[in-house]
Amino acid sequence: MKVHIQSPDQIKQTVKEKYAAISNQSNGDSCCGPANCCPPDGNVDYTIFSDDYSQLEGYNPDADLSLGCGLPTEFANIKPGDTVVDLGSGAGNDAFVARKVVGESGKVIGIDMTEAMIQRATLNAIKLNYSNLDFVLGDIEEMPLDDSIADVVVSNCVLNLVPDKKRAFAETRRILKQGGHFSISDVVIIGDLPNALKVDAEMYAGCVAGAIRKDEYLNIIKDSGFENIAVQKLKEIQLPDEMLLNYLTKKELKDFRNSETGIFSITVYAEKR
Predict the structure, then answer these.
(1) For the whole model, what pTM was predicted?
(2) N or C terminus of the chain: which is more exposed, having fewer CB within 10 Å?
(3) How many C-beta atoms surround the C-beta of residue 80 within 10 A?
(4) Residue 46 pLDDT
(5) CB 251: neighbour CB atoms within 10 A?
(6) Chain mean position to CA 156
(7) How far is CA 233 from the centre of its chain?
């Protein structure tokens, strides 16, 4: 029986539980990362959302849990000496890549609301003896960070998990310096998801039910006061039938496939002016 989402607090608790469980697994033990698309035997590997980080400088396989849906650091125009904040930093994958770019003169701060992820990321940083890479437990809707501390904000497939996206982007703007910018990868919808996908808690933790329409997403960014907004990358994501049949009837699945609705990974850039 599927669990239906009823409140923002319930959403957050579901996400915490799912990502704590993923954090406690070894790399590769989660057959589909956040997509929750595994059949009961767990033998099929669907890397639906994640992109390949392995060729990027600073990549640390211990920090890669295949939970992203893009490569925001690739588009983020990070410079040596920058202070970078990674929203929903997980085990530290994007933070380690950003740290390579900012160098010893810069700083990277990862923020995540899941204690198990903070612990895992911190251990990864300790192993490498990095003193300018910190991981902070906190909520993106109310970050425990000072105003105007970041030159750059990055995030990878996280804001779709946040119930109040307007507040999350307002907080992102607050922590950015004047003239700072963000590059955020996320999941958006073009069209309308079937209702059964919208309300299911597991699909929310898997980055799908919490996704909103692309135009609404971009309007939230604009209404938050950001300027020079640009879509840097847009990639369609095909969810496998065997996953969707956990939520849809065969007729609903057929109608979904024949509709103009699509699920996309998007990477967006915007500036605080």
Answers:
(1) 0.83
(2) N
(3) 10
(4) 35
(5) 8
(6) 3
(7) 15
Q: Per residue, what are the HEC states of 37-86?
A: CCCCCCCCCCCCCCCCCCCCCCCCHHHCCCCCCCCHHHHCCCCCCCEEEE
**pLDDT, greater one: 50 or 85:** 85
Mean pLDDT of 204-232: 88
SS3 90: coil
Nearest to 84 by CA among 71, 95, 68: 95
The token pair at 30 is 């989660």
Dihedral pair phi/psi, residue 43, rounded to 5°: -90, -15
Q: What is the pLDDT of residues 55-95, one digit of tens each?
A: 777 877 777 776 777 888 999 999 999 999 999 999 899 99
Tokens 């589909």, located at residue? 32
Residue written as token pair 């979904």 = 256
In the numeric block, the tokens 């125009």 are attached to 77
CATH superfamily of 8-271: Vaccinia Virus protein VP39 (3.40.50.150)
Torsion sign across C-alpha atoms 168, 174, 177, 180: positive
Annotate 159-171 with DSSP letters as a single string: GGG-S-HHHHHHH
Full DSSP string of 119-163:
HHHHHHHHHTT-SSEEEEE-BTTB-SS-TT-EEEEEEES-GGG-S
Sign of CA dihedral 5, 7, 8, 14: negative
Closest listed residue to residue 93, CA positions, set 115, 116, 73 = 73
Domains of the chain by residue range: 8-271
